[in-house]
Amino acid sequence: MKIAFYGSSLLSSYWNGAATYYRGLLHALARRGYDITFYEPDVYERQQNRDIDEPDWCQVVVYPGTAMAIADVTRHAAEADIVVVTSGIGFEDDTVRELVYRNARPGALRIFWDVDAPATLQQIAAEPDHPLHDHLQSVDLVLTYGGGDPVIYGYRSFGARECIPIYNALDPETHHPVPPVARFNADLSFLGNRLPDREARVEEFFLGAAHAAPQKAFLLGGSGWHDKPVPRNVHLVGHVRTADHNAFNVTPLAVLNISRESMAANGFSPATRVFEAAGAGACLITDDWAGLDLFLKDGEEVFAARDGRDVAEILERLTTATAKEVGQRARARVLREHTYDRRAEEADAIFRRFFAAERKVAAE
Questions:
Q1: What is the CATH number of the domain that holds 21?
Q2: Is the domain of 295 the same as that of 350?
Q3: pTM over 0.85
Q4: Which of 2, 34, 94, 144 could covalently link to 29 via disulfide, CB atoms 3.0 to 4.6 Å apart?
Q5: Dihedral sign of CA atoms 184, 186, 190, 192 in order
Q6: Whether the Cβ atoms of residue 205 and residue 287 lie closer than 8 Å to each other
Q7: Contact 165, 152 (CB under 8 A)
């Protein structure tokens, strides 16, 4: 089956936290026989900051940020069995959704794939005239990369026929143990772009911990932090390429996950960083959120913190031996239960169920 997938970027993780999710899941679907074309706009300097070349398992179409280009690439939706439009494309999202769903051929599976469902639901609840209200009536299925029951019930309340989370996961070929790299030396590291609904939580959990533990070394990676006032024991490294994520995760004593505000409030929304760090065998400290135990067990495979002081206290008692043990347990758990091959198996079953139902209706 052919999939036409319209998203932010497959080739670049620059200002694009969903890149590794797309790569891992679509690569796994390609291994199951899907013929995939990914359409991404040339915006936010992503093409100048590519992490990967075009893969052999997916065709990538990069289009200019113009109305004419959008009209052209969305016509290709008519060639696919499955058409997917994601949230967070970054350029004329509403127009892309409208044209893709309009151009899809009869009988094609129309999907809205939301990579920040809690924030999207908050937005459309506050905006009764948001185009998504109408677009949800056009789609057969909403998929999300997290959110659990709160997101499922939220989308159903806005008229979605069906909503199913396909969670983030691990691609063992991409994220795995590597030797440490000196420039990433630290007691605690955090990687994430500076975003409005994340910054206050970074101040609390990461910078707050740095203030509470002035004797420890902290490393902050990601775009947008260059002009952020930080304590003297925090070192900024800027954008970290996907190819360097493993070294970033394994080199420090521990790495920190901080959920965006909407995801933390909703729960059941593990970030890609959780599985990337675990896959590398890193010792992970995370802000506490509902549903964490579905993925990793607090105190054995991860450490959960309620605030920056908790982070500092965990770091104070953490030894190299304990960090290694926790990282090894986390890696074993995600390899066993949370790989993209498993997620692709779930997605494949969902797609096949839809087409089987369509054939049944057509035969009646």
A1: 3.40.50.2000
A2: no
A3: yes
A4: 34
A5: negative
A6: yes
A7: yes
